[in-house]
Design goal:
Distance between the termini: 17 Å
Number of strands: 14
Strand content: 35-45%
Shape: globular
Length: 188
């Protein structure tokens, strides 16, 4: 399986994996199982490495940055859920952040363990609604920070979504609700 944004090919995508159930990919074997009313994806963990925050990071999100971390994506820790909710990032600056595909902005949540938003203007996605691949980085980050393996998360885009997460060492499990909107058969 391969994933394409409007601008480039990426190595991992939650929405397309959810639609496929079990495939061999650039990120290894990915699977999806249905448990009651939740679909659970099994993804590789991407533990981010702490880096020094730079002025460009705070300018890009218009908020003070408490911590900066890097995996495939840049993760910026902000001070509160309200800061994550209210950011209006400068997408031109986000696209210029070095050594990353996209930007994850996160903070501790009020009624969930953590909240986030995901911006990838350099690959044609100004803001994604709910991003499975970003949670490959968020889950190990928050599991370590909070000292727990099972976490609840909310992505705060306009459409947004609730996720039930589990850190499993070098893998993460990301579960949420989904609706079937298309069904078909392919004959080869």
């Amino acid at each position: 399986m391969r994933w394409l944004t409007p601008a480039v090919e990426v190595d991992l995508c939650g929405h397309a994996t959810l639609a496929s159930m079990d495939f061999h990919t650039k990120s290894g074997v990915l699977s999806v199982v249905k448990q009651d009313d939740l679909f659970e994806m099994d993804f590789p963990a991407r533990k981010p490495e702490k880096i020094q925050p730079a002025a460009l990071m705070a300018q890009a999100v218009g908020q003070p940055v408490q911590e900066a971390h890097l995996s495939r994506d840049m993760l910026l820790l902000l001070g509160s859920q309200e800061e994550v909710e209210n950011i209006q990032p400068d997408l031109n600056l986000v696209a210029k952040l070095p050594n990353c595909l996209a930007l994850i902005v996160t903070a501790k949540g009020r009624d969930v363990d953590f909240v986030s938003r995901f911006f990838a203007p350099a690959v044609g996605l100004p803001e994604d609604h709910v991003t499975g691949s970003a949670h490959s980085t968020l889950i190990p980050f928050w599991a370590e920070k909070l000292g727990k393996d099972k976490l609840t998360a909310r992505q705060l885009s306009k459409r947004g979504g609730m996720l039930f997460c589990q850190s499993c060492g070098d893998r993460v499990k990301i579960a949420g609700k989904a609706r079937l909107y298309l069904q078909g058969e392919i004959y080869l």
